[in-house]
Write a structure and sequence with these properties.
- The protein has 21 helices and 28 strands.
- With 850 residues, it is of the alpha+beta class.
- It has five domains: 153 residues, no CATH class; 140 residues, Beta-Lactamase (2-Layer Sandwich); 125 residues, 2-Layer Sandwich (Beta-Lactamase); 115 residues, 2-Layer Sandwich (Beta-Lactamase); 220 residues, Phosphatase 2c, domain 1 (4-Layer Sandwich), CATH 3.60.40.10.
- The longest helix is centred in the N-terminal third of the chain and has 44 residues.
- The relative contact order is 0.04.
- It comes from Streptomyces wedmorensis.
- This is SpoIIE family protein phosphatase.
C-alpha cells in the first residue's frame, strides 16, 4: 500500500503533516536479536515489526483515502465550473498544480476554499494573514475555473510574487482533510480521531473529546482521541448540575480557556493524566442550537492562543456541530427524547403539538427560524394548543405559523422572554420561573400580566407553557395568609339546614381535630369559662334574635387544658322574607393582645405611681428652695448701697437645682454678697445648697476675707457633705470705704457696670468647692464709685447648648451696657433678654453704689 498514488498519478499528493510514519519498504530485513537472546524474544521482535508495518500501511491508506476525497471534491468543482468531464478535470487540476508550484492536494484545498467561502476558508485566511503577514490574495493560488472557449490555463505568476506560503497550504490542507474525514466518518469516534490527527496535533494538542448534550443538559462522551479507554469509560456520562469544563462552556454559550486545568480547579476528562495541561472548550452549535461541546487538551500549560488559532478551533467546533447534527442519537435512534422515551417526528413538533393539546395551560410549540447565514433569528409558532388564549383576542389560527417576534414583539422587551427561549434552545437546560411579568400589545397599548413560565426543549423544538396568575386565586391566597398571621378563622352557619362551615384555622384555635364536628354558636358557652356565660348569652341574643352584628370576647377552655382569649364577631344574613338564613363571622385569638394589655395596664399603674411620687418629691424640693431663697428678696438695710436679687427656677420641676445666693449685713456693718451653684439637680443638690449657704453665712461672722471664707467652705463641701461639688463667688463690701473684696471658686467673675460701659472682672485663681481637701483662693479688691453697679450671677443666665461661654458673656455685657432707670429694672432686663436654653436655675445679685 505504500506505493499507492492519488488519481492522476502525482506522488506529491500524499497527505502532508498527518504524523504517520512512513511504512517500511517491502523486502526490508527486520534485524534479529543479538547473540544470546532467546528464540521467544526473536519471535516477539518479528511480530512487533510486523504490527508496526501494518499500522503504517493502515495510516497511509487512511491518508490516501482522505487525500483522494479532497481531490475528488476539487475535480467536482472544476467539472461544475468548466462543464467538462472527470478526465479533463483531472488533467486541468494536474496542469494548474504544476504551473502554480503546488501539490495537487494543496491546490485542491485552495479550490475548495475559493468555492466554499465558509468558516474553514476564513480560518485558513486568518492564519495566512497572521503567519505570512500579507493578504491571502498575494499567495499563488489557483484561479477559480470558468468555462473558457479553450482549455483553461493558469496565469503566469508575477515576477515579484512571493514564494508559495507553506503555512497557508498546510493549514488549508489540514482543515479540509479534517472536514472531509469528519463528513465521511460513520460515527463521532472517527470524527474525534480525524480532528486530532489532522488539525489539532499540529497545534500541540494531545487529546480531544466531543460531548453531546441531552434534553436535561446532561453530557455524554460521544467521541474521544488521546484519552485512555478507562478514562473515557469513567467519563461516558456527566449528570445535570455537575460543574465541569464542558458544562461551563455549555451554560455560558462561549469559549472557555484554562491555561492550566489544575490551577482552575475544574474537573474534566484526562485531568489525572495531564494535571497541568491547558484546555480550550468550545460550544459546537449551528442555527442557534448547541449540539455538543468540543474539548481540546494540551499536555502543558498554554499561553493565550493567537487569533488565527482561535478561528481554526471555532471552525472545527462548527464542523463538529454539523457532524453531530447529521449523526443519529445513540439513545433514541435519531428521535428527540420526551419523558424518557423517544418521540418520532423529525424535529419533534408533531409529537409536542399532540402533547400540548392535553395540557390545561396555554402552550406554544416553537421551532427555530434561521437567517440566510444559518444563524437563529426567530422562532416559528408551529402549534398553539386548545387552551391557548391570545391577549389581543386573536384566534389561535391567526397565530399558528407566525414568527414569535412578529406575533408578540414585546417578548424581546423587559421580560426577556425571547432570550430565555433562545438559551433553552441553545443549551437544552429547561427554564422555570414564577410570577414573570409578560407584556402584550393590544391595539398598540402594552398590557402586562404575571404568569408562571415553563420552557423546555425536545429535539429541535421548544415547548413554552405559561399560567397567568388568577386574580381571585391570588386574593384567596393572600386572605389565607392574612388569617393565619392574624390567627383568624372564618365560619358560616346555615340557620335552616344547620350546616356549619369552618375555616381550617378554627380547628387549631379550638384545639379540635379536623375529623371532629365544628362547634355551633348556640353551644359556645359550653366551651367557655363559666364566668363568661352571661357575656356569650348577650352576644347570641343580639345576633340570633335581634339580628344585628355582634362582637364579644371570652375565655375559651380547650380540651388540652389551654385557656385562650377569643374574640368572636358575627353577622346575620337575612332572606327575602326577613327570616334568618345564615350567620357568618370570624373567631380571632387575642391572647397575646390580652396579656399585652394586662402588662401595659400594670406598667401604666406603676408609671403613674412613680410620676406622682416624683412630682411630690419635686414639689417639696421646690418648696424648700423657695423657703430659703424667695424669688424676690426684701430690701437690704445697707447705707449707701442698693441691693436687688432675682431667682428664676428651672422650667421643669424635675430639674430643681442647687443655685443659691445670699446678701446679709454682718455684725461689722460690712455686707456679705455671694452666689453659688451646686452640681446636679433634685433633693441632693437642694440639700447641698442649704448646707453651703448656711455654712458661709456662719463663717462670715468671723470677719475673715472672702478668700479665707471660700477655703473654709471648700473643707465643708469636701468633708461634711456627701461628695458635693459647687462653684461660688464671694464678696465683702465695706460701705465706709466703698471697697469690694471678692474671690471666686470656679465660678464666672462678676460684671462691673460703670457709666455706659460694662466689663467682666478678672478671672482670679480658685478651684471649685469640694474637689480637693485643701485649696487656696486668690482675692482682690475693687474700689467702687457712686453709680457703679456690680452683678453676680449663675451660669443659668448665659449658658447655651450651641454657643461658647465667651460669646454668651459678651452678649450679657451688651445687655448690661444698656441704660436703666433703676437696679431692679436692670435685673429684670437681664432676665428678659437671657439667651439661656439649658433649663437651669438662674440667680442674679446686683448692688449699686449711691
Amino acid at each position: 500500500m505504500s506505493g499507492r498514488r492519488f488519481p492522476g498519478g502525482d506522488p506529491s499528493a500524499r497527505l502532508p503533516e498527518t504524523g504517520a510514519a512512513a511504512p517500511p519498504t517491502p523486502g526490508t530485513a527486520v534485524p534479529y536479536p543479538a547473540d544470546g537472546a532467546s528464540a521467544d524474544a526473536s519471535a516477539d521482535g518479528r511480530l512487533a515489526a510486523t504490527v508496526e508495518r501494518l499500522r503504517g500501511e493502515v495510516r497511509a491508506a487512511q491518508a490516501a483515502a482522505e487525500g483522494r476525497a479532497l481531490i475528488e471534491l476539487a475535480k467536482g468543482v472544476i467539472v461544475e465550473r468548466l462543464g467538462c468531464g472527470p478526465a479533463q478535470a483531472a488533467r486541468q487540476l494536474a496542469e494548474l498544480a504544476d504551473r502554480a508550484g503546488l501539490s495537487r492536494l494543496e491546490l485542491a484545498a485552495d479550490i475548495i476554499n475559493q468555492a466554499a467561502r465558509d468558516r474553514m476558508a476564513e480560518a485558513a485566511d486568518e492564519f495566512v494573514r497572521t503567519a505570512v503577514g500579507e493578504p491571502p490574495a498575494t499567495a499563488p493560488t489557483a484561479p477559480a475555473p470558468e468555462p473558457p472557449a479553450t482549455a483553461p490555463t493558469a496565469p503566469a505568476p508575477a515576477a515579484n510574487a512571493p514564494a508559495p506560503a507553506a503555512p497557508a497550504a498546510s493549514v488549508s490542507v489540514r482543515l479540509r482533510t479534517a472536514e472531509s474525514a469528519a463528513l465521511s466518518a460513520g460515527d463521532t469516534q472517527a470524527v474525534a480521531e480525524s480532528l486530532l490527527r489532522h488539525a489539532l496535533e499540529p497545534l500541540g494538542a494531545v487529546a480531544v473529546a466531543i460531548w453531546t448534550t441531552g434534553p436535561d443538559t446532561s453530557l455524554s462522551l460521544r467521541g474521544h482521541a488521546g484519552f485512555g479507554l478507562d478514562e473515557a469509560a469513567r467519563w461516558h456520562y456527566v449528570p445535570p448540575g455537575v460543574t465541569t469544563a464542558a458544562r461551563q462552556a455549555l451554560t455560558g454559550r462561549r469559549t472557555v480557556r484554562y491555561a492550566s486545568l489544575a490551577a482552575a480547579g475544574i474537573p474534566s476528562i484526562g485531568r489525572a493524566r495531564h494535571p497541568d495541561g491547558g484546555r480550550v472548550v468550545v460550544p459546537a452549535g449551528t442555527g442557534g442550537r448547541i449540539h455538543g461541546v468540543l474539548e481540546i487538551c494540551w499536555a502543558r500549560p498554554i499561553d493565550p492562543l493567537p487569533q488565527a488559532v482561535e478561528r481554526q478551533i471555532e471552525a472545527l467546533a462548527e464542523l463538529c456541530a454539523h457532524t453531530l447534527e447529521a449523526l443519529p442519537e445513540a439513545s433514541s435512534g435519531g428521535f428527540p427524547v420526551l419523558g424518557g422515551f423517544p418521540v418520532p417526528g423529525g424535529d419533534g413538533a408533531p409529537a409536542l403539538a399532540e402533547l400540548s393539546d392535553g395540557l390545561y395551560d396555554p402552550a406554544l410549540v416553537l421551532t427555530p427560524h434561521l437567517g440566510e447565514a444559518g444563524e437563529l433569528v426567530d422562532f416559528r409558532i408551529r402549534h398553539a394548543n386548545a387552551h391557548f388564549r391570545d391577549p389581543a383576542g386573536r384566534p389561535r389560527g391567526s397565530v399558528d405559523g407566525a414568527l414569535l417576534l412578529e406575533a408578540y414583539p414585546a417578548t424581546a422587551g423587559g421580560s426577556e422572554l425571547f432570550e430565555r427561549i433562545e438559551r433553552v434552545y441553545a443549551t437544552g437546560e429547561p427554564f422555570r420561573a414564577r410570577r414573570v411579568r409578560l407584556t402584550a400589545l393590544v391595539d398598540q397599548v402594552p398590557l402586562a400580566s404575571l404568569a408562571d413560565i415553563s420552557i423546555s426543549r425536545y429535539g429541535a423544538s421548544v415547548l413554552l407553557i405559561w399560567r397567568v396568575e388568577d386574580e381571585s386565586a391570588r386574593l384567596a391566597s393572600l386572605l389565607q395568609h392574612a388569617q393565619r398571621l392574624g390567627r383568624v378563622g372564618a365560619f358560616e352557619e346555615d340557620a335552616v339546614a344547620g350546616d356549619i362551615t369552618w375555616h381550617g384555622q378554627l380547628y387549631e384555635l379550638f384545639g379540635r381535630r379536623p375529623t371532629e364536628p365544628p362547634v355551633a354558636l348556640r353551644d359556645l358557652a359550653a366551651h367557655a369559662h363559666p364566668d363568661d356565660a352571661d357575656t356569650i348569652r348577650r352576644f347570641l341574643q343580639k345576633v340570633l334574635y335581634q339580628r344585628r352584628v355582634g362582637s364579644t370576647a371570652f375565655r375559651m377552655l380547650r380540651h388540652d387544658g389551654v385557656t385562650r382569649h377569643i374574640r368572636v364577631t358575627a353577622e346575620p344574613a337575612l332572606g327575602a322574607d326577613g327570616g334568618l338564613q345564615a350567620v357568618r363571622g370570624a373567631y380571632q385569638d387575642i391572647s397575646a393582645q390580652h396579656w399585652t394589655e394586662v402588662a401595659l395596664t400594670a406598667t401604666r399603674d406603676r408609671l403613674a405611681a412613680t410620676e406622682e411620687a416624683a412630682e411630690e418629691r419635686n414639689r417639696l424640693t421646690l418648696q424648700l428652695q423657695h423657703a430659703i431663697m424667695p424669688p424676690v428678696k426684701p430690701p437690704l438695710d445697707a447705707p449707701g448701697l442698693d441691693v436687688a436679687v432675682r431667682y428664676r427656677p428651672a422650667e421643669s420641676e424635675s430639674l430643681v437645682g442647687g443655685d443659691w445666693y445670699d446678701t446679709v449685713v454682718l455684725p461689722s456693718k460690712k455686707v456679705l454678697l455671694c452666689v453659688g451653684d451646686v452640681a446636679g439637680h433634685g433633693v441632693e443638690a437642694a440639700t447641698g445648697m442649704v448646707v453651703l449657704r448656711n455654712a458661709l453665712r456662719g463663717l462670715a461672722v468671723t470677719g475673715a476675707g472672702p478668700g479665707q471664707l471660700l477655703s473654709w467652705l471648700n473643707s465643708v463641701a469636701h468633708h461634711l457633705t456627701a461628695q458635693v461639688t459647687a462653684t461660688a463667688v464671694c464678696g465683702i463690701y465695706d460701705p465706709a470705704s466703698r471697697t469690694l473684696r471678692w474671690a471666686r471658686a470656679g465660678h464666672l467673675p462678676p460684671v462691673l457696670v460703670r457709666g455706659d460701659d460694662a466689663v467682666d472682672l478678672p478671672l482670679l485663681r480658685g478651684l471649685l468647692l469640694g474637689a480637693l481637701a485643701e485649696a487656696e483662693y486668690e482675692e482682690t479688691e475693687l474700689r467702687l464709685e457712686p453709680g457703679d453697679t456690680v452683678l453676680m450671677y449663675t451660669d443659668g443666665l448665659v449658658e447655651r447648648r450651641d454657643t461658647a461661654v465667651h460669646d454668651s458673656v459678651a452678649q450679657l455685657l451688651t445687655v448690661a451696657r444698656q441704660p436703666s432707670d433703676s437696679l431692679e429694672h436692670r435685673l429684670d432686663q437681664l432676665l428678659a433678654r437671657s439667651k439661656s436654653d439649658t433649663d437651669d436655675d438662674t440667680c442674679v445679685v446686683g448692688v449699686q453704689v449711691s
